[in-house]
Amino acid sequence: MLHGRSAEISGLDEVIVRARDGSGGAVVLRGEAGVGKTALLDPAAARGATMRVLRTTGVEPESDLAFAACTGCCGR
Ligand SMILES: Nc1ncnc2c1ncn2[C@@H]1O[C@H](COP(=O)(O)OP(=O)(O)OP(=O)(O)O)[C@@H](O)[C@H]1O
Ligand SMILES: [Mg+2]
Hints:
By secondary structure, this protein is mostly helical. The chain has one domain (6-71).
């Protein structure tokens, strides 16, 4: 159970609903280590499980390359 994140959960769900209806969107979820980014995204991905869910992870050697983690999965 996540505490105090109802606005963030609603925002993610809105993007999921729009995506399901055919409107793309993007969310930048940023914060310090341990603040709860993954804890928000894991359940959101599960709620979107009727759609294709792609996941990617940034790696240190590519930290100078903007959006490098996306180029392998979204750039096609
Ligand atoms: N709002 C919250 N309510 C309850 N537990 C939370 C909340 N936010 C984070 N946590 C808990 O804190 C821990 C760290 O959260 P999480 O792993 O999601 O952080 P993170 O931002 O993804 O960190 P990192 O940047 O290291 O990947 C987890 O055990 C998570 O369940
Ligand atoms: Mg995380």
